[in-house]
Write a structure and sequence with these properties.
Structural class: alpha+beta
Radius of gyration: 28 Å
Bound molecules: histidyl-adenosine monophosphate
Number of strands: 16
Strand content: 15-25%
Shape: elongated
Largest sheet: 8 strands, mixed
Number of helices: 17
Strand order of the largest sheet: 1-5-6-11-10-9-7-8
Oligomer: single chain
Distance between the termini: 45 Å
Helix content: 25-40%
Length: 425
């Protein structure tokens, strides 16, 4: 027997039973973002490696060790996208979207790829809903974007199970001094940091603030706070963002240790955390990235956005009712009846009633068992004699009750009405 070929580690199939959950996540994105003026952008799954290396930052974990990078047949280095923001910025520049009235509001949904250690809620292919607002620096836009993120979770009924954390990580004017002060503090306590953090002190000291290891916590707790180091304009920006978040009635915590794993962020950063998924507690994260578009060869346009981790939200949401589940099974007991049932099924489906037809081969009892297993609430049985008399037998699978109905009323009886809707719920 040939050996079975399995999916790659950390790469999951989304099976039909999960489809209603995923469709809910995608529909909610459209329903919440489009009324706010966000338009969908569909991007390629791979880009030139240079885009991510420059955009995300050479010393980030993502670029240093998590990218799926390979040479294509012409020898060009390409990378499966580990995130969408750099690619959105590339498209914004490449297609001259910056000439449109600003902010340019975009969203995109799809898979990302990171070579991380797989565990519950962390995968090597995962999916994000990504939102970006480009070309506008006003702090009110930060609040719009964060407010929309929380509206998304509210739409899914998850708001009470999530906590919003916000921070400012300063900009090129104030962060270098903070970075130096932080590095000095970490340097002085090098022996009390985990091995990974020791390596980070020189290259990317801010990332140490994000370490979850218990050993590092005492040093992190004593570290200087970025909020004490913000320059005047960054402080004012952050104060105004908070005032607008308050105006929106949003509950949030200011978390000065909140740093993000990608280098392009300035000023506002935020994350949405859950206590329900163990170590993978971030369901969404984002922030401002003024400077990224310029770094990628475009105009000096600012930007802000976020990405939602769909696998993690799917875990929180759990299974959803299946809209494609059959509401009725038609069981013909003969060839003329089958022909009638095929036409009847078509008419029912056209009115929005998911309908299945038994194609024969099984006895009536077998079909009823199958309807039970599939959870189909009603079965319409049509024998050739009944067909000749213009009637059919309607069976309620829960009560086992059967009644005769006129065939020409079948669509009216089975379709659309309150009884049918109740049956499906
Ligand atoms: P990120 O924090 O790297 O940000 O990812 C955003 C979210 O994607 C995380 O909070 C998490 O829910 C999910 N996620 C990340 N890695 C994995 C994984 N390996 N498995 C499952 N879920 C994962 C960004 O990607 C930025 N581009 C967000 C952004 C947009 N900033 C501005 N605009």
């Amino acid at each position: 027997m040939p050996e079975q070929i399995r999916a790659i580690r950390g790469v999951r199939d989304i099976l039909p039973a999960e489809a209603p959950t995923w469709q809910t996540l995608e529909a909610a994105a459209r329903e919440v973002f489009e009324p706010c003026g966000y338009r969908e952008l569909r991007l390629p799954l791979f880009e030139r490696t240079e885009l991510f290396a420059r955009g995300i930052g050479e010393t980030t974990d993502v670029v240093e060790k998590e990218m799926y990078t390979f040479q294509d047949r012409s020898g060009e280095s390409v990378t499966l996208r580990p995130e969408a923001t750099a690619a959105v910025a590339r498209a914004y520049i490449e297609h001259g979207l910056f000439t449109q009235p600003k902010p340019v509001r975009l969203y995109t949904v799809g898979p990302m790829f990171r070579y991380e250690r797989p565990q519950a809620g962390r995968y090597r292919q995962f999916h994000q809903v990504n939102v970006e607002a480009l070309g506008e620096a006003a702090p009110a836009l930060d609040a719009e974007v964060v407010g929309m993120l929380m509206a998304y979770f509210a739409r899914l009924g998850l708001a009470d199970r999530l906590a919003l954390h916000v921070n400012s990580i300063g900009d090129a004017a104030c962060r270098p001094a903070f970075r130096a002060a932080l590095a000095a503090h970490l340097e002085a306590n090098l022996g009390r940091l985990c091995e990974e953090c020791r390596g980070r002190v020189a290259r990317n000291p801010l990332r140490v603030l994000d370490c979850k290891k218990p050993d590092c916590q005492p040093v992190i707790e004593k570290a200087p706070s970025i909020l004490d180091a913000l320059c005047g304009p960054c402080r004012e920006h952050f104060d105004r963002v908070r005032a607008y978040l308050d105006a929106l009635g949003l509950r949030y915590e200011v978390t000065p240790r909140l740093v993000r794993g990608l280098d392009y962020y300035v000023r506002t950063t935020f994350e949405v955390l859950t206590g329900e998924l163990g170590a993978q507690n971030a369901v969404a994260g984002g922030g401002r990235y003024d400077g990224l578009i310029e770094l990628l060869g475009g105009p000096a346009d600012p930007g802000i956005g976020f990405a939602i981790g769909m696998e993690r939200v799917a875990l929180l949401l759990g299974p959803r009712p299946d809209p494609a589940a059959a509401a009725v099974l038609l069981v013909p007991l003969g060839e003329p009846a089958l022909r009638r049932c095929l036409a009847l099924a078509q008419a029912l489906r056209a009115t929005g009633v998911p309908t299945e037809v038994a194609y024969g081969g099984r006895k009536l009892r077998g079909e009823l068992e199958r309807a039970n297993r599939l959870g189909i609430p009603r079965v319409l049985i049509l024998g050739d004699d009944e067909l000749a008399a213009g009637v059919a037998t309607l069976r309620d699978m829960r009560s086992g009750e059967q009644r005769r109905i006129p065939l020409r009323e079948a669509v009216a009886v089975l379709g659309g009405g309150p009884a049918a809707a109740g049956d499906r719920a």
